[in-house]
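Q: Predict the bound structure with guanosine-5'-triphosphate.
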Amino acid sequence: MISIEQMAMVLEALPDPAFVLSRSGKYVAVFGGHDERYYHSSEGLVGLRITDMVPADKAAWFLEQIELALETEALLIREYELSIKEVNTGVEDGPPHPIWFEGRIQKLDFLVDGEEVVLWMASNITERHDMEAKLRELSDTDQLTGLFNRRRLERDLISHYKAAQEQFIPTSIVAFDLDNLKTINDTLGHYVGDEVIMAIGHICRAGLNGDAIACRFGGDEFVVALPNVKLEQAMVFADLLHERCEAHFNCFFAKSLASIIGVSIGIAEILATDTSYEMALKRADDALYQAKRGGKNRTMVG
Ligand SMILES: Nc1nc2c(ncn2[C@@H]2O[C@H](COP(=O)(O)OP(=O)(O)OP(=O)(O)O)[C@@H](O)[C@H]2O)c(=O)[nH]1
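A: Predicted complex:
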């Protein structure tokens, strides 16, 4: 039979840190988690309170989880982020970058100093978390330009449409299409055509600010969503886009190519009367084709 002392040694040897926390957020006991590559030091925590250790909003969140684990008596699994700067240990050890944790929180069937307690096991899941974030980013990105892809734009437009309907926050949509890319492909080769498409990625990344979301919608068509921007300001954005494209093409491409390449732009604003974001997107797209029919390299409003 294992002795109490041996049991304490087993707990101390746990690779991940395990905390016994009271309902009021007091550290009653701390075990394991001594690997400084993965964890901040837990030394000297016993007797302190969560509110002494982390900023108020985080402390409130921890207390909420403890409360929930005690009330439900179920195993809670929660992901959260903590950086060494947020933890008031007075000891600057452990990894310098923020750590993502998976916390497993379970009510314990005994009281400490008359208070209910939980066991809070914390595992470092930063690698998995970063990998998942990277995969999410890749699945939202167009490989050739580095801009977002259509799937990501559609997701964002759904939330901008909701904001327009519920909070009257305007969003403008700027749809644009390269002029004469087929001629460039046919005369100078597909690789030069690719370079022109990549140039749009560069122009959008360098020239957009704030919440603007630029995406390659498909082929040589692009869409920029401009949250908090009304139609008149979107016109200014479209003028700037024309200017930037012209300057970039003149600077980086041969004269013969720069003289035929340009962008046709259609803009529209999501309206309160729209029943979906697609209606505004269609208006922008229709305006884009009017710009094409009107002679290309110009902006039309939908
Ligand atoms: N190089 C290259 N070409 C592409 C790519 N995606 C689509 N295209 C070409 O882009 C052209 C798009 O067709 P259109 O928009 O009708 O051609 P366009 O010459 O730009 O005509 P306008 O839009 O009327 O000015 C087609 O020839 C496609 O093959 C790509 O990733 N790389």
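A: Residues 4-132 form a domain with the Beta-Lactamase fold (CATH 3.30.450.20).
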